[in-house]
UniProtKB/TrEMBL annotation:
<feature type="domain" description="Protein kinase">
    <location>
        <begin position="689"/>
        <end position="969"/>
    </location>
</feature>
<dbReference type="GO" id="GO:0009791">
    <property type="term" value="P:post-embryonic development"/>
</dbReference>
<keyword id="KW-0675">Receptor</keyword>
<dbReference type="GO" id="GO:0033612">
    <property type="term" value="F:receptor serine/threonine kinase binding"/>
</dbReference>
<dbReference type="GO" id="GO:0005886">
    <property type="term" value="C:plasma membrane"/>
</dbReference>
<dbReference type="GO" id="GO:0004674">
    <property type="term" value="F:protein serine/threonine kinase activity"/>
</dbReference>
<keyword id="KW-0433">Leucine-rich repeat</keyword>
<keyword id="KW-0472">Membrane</keyword>
<dbReference type="GO" id="GO:0005524">
    <property type="term" value="F:ATP binding"/>
</dbReference>
<dbReference type="Pfam" id="PF07714">
    <property type="entry name" value="PK_Tyr_Ser-Thr"/>
</dbReference>
<keyword id="KW-0812">Transmembrane</keyword>
<dbReference type="InterPro" id="IPR001245">
    <property type="entry name" value="Ser-Thr/Tyr_kinase_cat_dom"/>
</dbReference>
<dbReference type="InterPro" id="IPR017441">
    <property type="entry name" value="Protein_kinase_ATP_BS"/>
</dbReference>
<dbReference type="Pfam" id="PF13855">
    <property type="entry name" value="LRR_8"/>
</dbReference>
<keyword id="KW-0677">Repeat</keyword>
<feature type="binding site">
    <location>
        <position position="722"/>
    </location>
    <ligand>
        <name>ATP</name>
    </ligand>
</feature>
<keyword id="KW-0418">Kinase</keyword>
Amino acid sequence: MPNNCYISFFLSIQLLLSLQPKSYAQSTNQSNDDHQILLGLMKHWGRNSPALSRWSSTSAPHCNWGGVTCTNGAVTRISLSNQSFIKPIPASLCLLKNLTSLDLSYNNFSTSFPIALYNCSNLNYLDLSNNFFVGNLPDDINSLSAQLEHLNLSTNCFTGRIPPSIGWFLRLKSLLLDNNRFDGSYPAEGFGNLSSLQILTLANNLFDPVPVPWEFGKLRNLTYLWLSDMNITGEIPESLSNLTKLEVLDLSENWMQGTIPMWIWQLKKLKYLYLFDNNFTGEIADNITALDLVEIDLSSNKLTGTIPGDFGKLTNLTLLFLYQNQLCGSIPPSIGLLPNLYDIRLFNNMLSGALPSELGKHSPLANFEVGNNNLSGELPEGLCSNRKLYDIVVFNNSFSGKLPESLDGCYLLNNLMMFNNHFTGEFPKSLWSVVTNQLSVVMIQNNNFSGTFPTQLPWNFTQLDISNNRFSGPVPSLAGRMKIFRAANNMLSGEIPWDLTGISQVTDLDLSGNQITGPIPMTIGVLKGLNALNISGNQISGNIPAAFGFMSVLTILDLSSNALSGKIPKDFDKLRLSFLNLSMNQLSGEIPTSLQNETYDLRFNPGLCVSSNSSDHNFQICRARSDFSNVLSRRLITIFSVLASVMFLSSVAGFLILRRQKYRHDHQTWELTPFHALHFTEHGILSGLCEQNRIGSGRSGKVYCVHVMDEAGAGSMVAVKKIWNLQNLDGNLEKDFLAEVKILGEIRHTNVVKLLCCISSSEAKLLVYEYMENSSLDRWLHQREGIRVPAPLDWTTRLQIAIDSARGLCYMHHGCSPAIVHRDVKSANILLDSEFRAKVADFGLAQILLKAGELESVSAMCGTFGYMPPEYGYQRRVNEKIDVYGFGVVLLELTTGKVANGGGAEYCLAQWAWRQYQENGLSVDLLDEEIKDPAYNEDMLAVFTLALICTGGQPSMRPSMKNVLHALLRFDHR
Ligand SMILES: *[C@@H]1O[C@H](CO)[C@@H](O)[C@H](O)[C@H]1NC(C)=O
Ligand SMILES: *[C@@H]1O[C@H](CO)[C@@H](O)[C@H](O)[C@H]1NC(C)=O
Ligand SMILES: *[C@@H]1O[C@H](CO)[C@@H](O)[C@H](O)[C@H]1NC(C)=O
């Protein structure tokens, strides 16, 4: 028996020894207990925490479990921070007899103070910080282990006072109680007993307002004293001068007063001194021997006198904040020589004289703020020598001269506030550079800067104020995140950039007092967030766009002193303006009723009038005729909309009744032929055909973007193609034209741009199409002069666009009888809606125009250079395969990113692609640099190959659109 017993015991020991560290065997019993206790903890807190989920009863020995540390086989340390524990700390924890260190910080405990821990009698390290413990600290908190050296209760929700018994932990080296909700007293005497203390934090609590207890001066081993924002009053006690080991002294954000004592500047070990946000007065001593100082923040006090020259001795100084005081005199030149200074903030003082001439040359200066002083002279030449500067704030001083050359290439610069100084000279051009620029705020108003702008400003700008300077040249195109752009009273000329869609977030736009000409762009309507617009005092002409009616948050509008003409749009009735000035223009017609308001200024517009029943006597009464015509046109609109809804019903019933309505406009008779239920009138379209609404012009005519409104006042956009040179059509051709257009109008396919109606007169034809928000594909692929591609389309989007347009073409070729050939497939004819879904535009138009005799010359017939197949030109009869060729070129554009017809007559993308393929085969070098992605390279090369096949020389060898579509669908992995 005993033998067997011995053997089995021996075997099990052997087994354990082979698995565990050697020492384990010595305390097997304690170890077994510990093991069970840990399993109990795991059960209690649950296995969902990151560490406990890997604890297990079977695998590794518990001493290797995450968060567990053993000494001689017994658990001595538990470190389970950040485990999302919610359930209270269990009493069983203290059954771990040899536990000396416990870290449960960053969990979600929300009980009162865990007195269960009183039983952990060997604890010397306890960290319960960053939880949600509530209630008062217990009066008998000294029942915790007397061994305690480190107690961290910071960042919880403890309230009340701090009990005096806290002073009984005679071994305590660090005590952290900051960031709670203590609202009573703290035991000055108790703290005074903690003579071993090195770290003491009480900051950010709402303690009773008292001065710093003199007893804190007894804590001679303190290195770290954090007492900010705890309602301290009174002066800094003399006793603290005993704390000669202090490295960090933070008394900021209190109600302290008196002077900053001399001895502080002689604490030899002091590195960080924060006294900001108090009421300290007096001068800063100039006898500094605390030479290790790294950061000094004395901001927001009432300090007087000058900045001590001794600051220039602090070679470790990185940060110097003296802002918001009453300091005077000049900034000591020695500060410019400090080798580590990177952040200096001296704003809101009364400093005068020049800046240290060496500032920026010797240190990695990053932040420089001296606004609101009386400083003068030039900015130091080497301010950005080290290329680290991101903030220059020097506004409201008397600086003069040119900007330092070191700003050229200061490419981290983010914030430049120089307003209200006397700077002169040309503003450094490189700061407007699109490529490297980080600048987001530039406020340089009220100086004498000159210079011009690049066509396009960088994307990062959020605020730009150059008002009251001498900048000249054209108004730059604005881009990106711009919220505020003010350029009042400069010498800017040219037109307001047509495309304002890039700055749809702008809230404040001021271009007043320049020499700007041309119209107000129709795209002004996209500035949905615009609050204030001032373009007064220019030579802006044309009508006021109706689009203003949709700028719902516009409150300040000043268009005065320009050459605007025409009527004030009715839609002004919808605006809620607090300021309006339209005076000194050439506006005419009846003033909308809501604008007949004393507070608005409409004077000096000789043509403006009010209705006879108006009480406004500043304007003439409108003549009856205009009154009558107004009523008449309103009636016509009503009648028309009734008819339109009747028409809609009948088309639902299966008829498409072509109804022609006559309308007189400019002595022409216009006939409208609808193909869909319409929500606008021809009048709405015709009145929108002004130059400022033009979005393009092609061979056959101009294209306009017109804002139309339905009866309910809801607005939307349509695109109108005005075909010119058709005035000489004879009766038969005219009939043919309309018959052809009707065929196109009846086509309904998701990937073909809808032709809504045709409006024709003897002199012109208008084709009204649905409006596509994202314009045409070529805009997104190729940079046009001055207009940047908004952002490269990724491959998934490009493939979707290819598939969509292939579907459209496929339908026209194979779903219609007879097939409809496009004849001018190109990326400019593929339009994108708000979701980047593609539709083919201008279907069949070339054919119609050809028949109507519009396109006579061979070159016009040959489609667009770069997209026309070889057979074009000598073969007058063409078939669908010319569209396949054109589509192949579009696929080449999508994969290579190159333009179809870039450099001169020789270059042609299809030929280039064939040559590359023959010489070098398929290679990723062919693909668009912008979107290269190893995950898609193979697909892109396959589509490139498909494009080569589509652009083959022999029409008969090209695949049909059906085949092309099927091939493309294979790459669609979604
Ligand atoms: C654990 O603590 C007990 C007394 O509390 C002590 O006797 C024992 O030696 C300790 N074990 C280890 C491994 O330190
Ligand atoms: C203070 O620190 C010194 C050196 O670190 C140490 O010798 C001394 O015992 C400490 N004083 C107290 C009261 O703990
Ligand atoms: C600070 O002290 C004042 C009394 O001086 C007291 O009314 C206030 O509640 C205390 N706390 C804060 C946060 O000001």
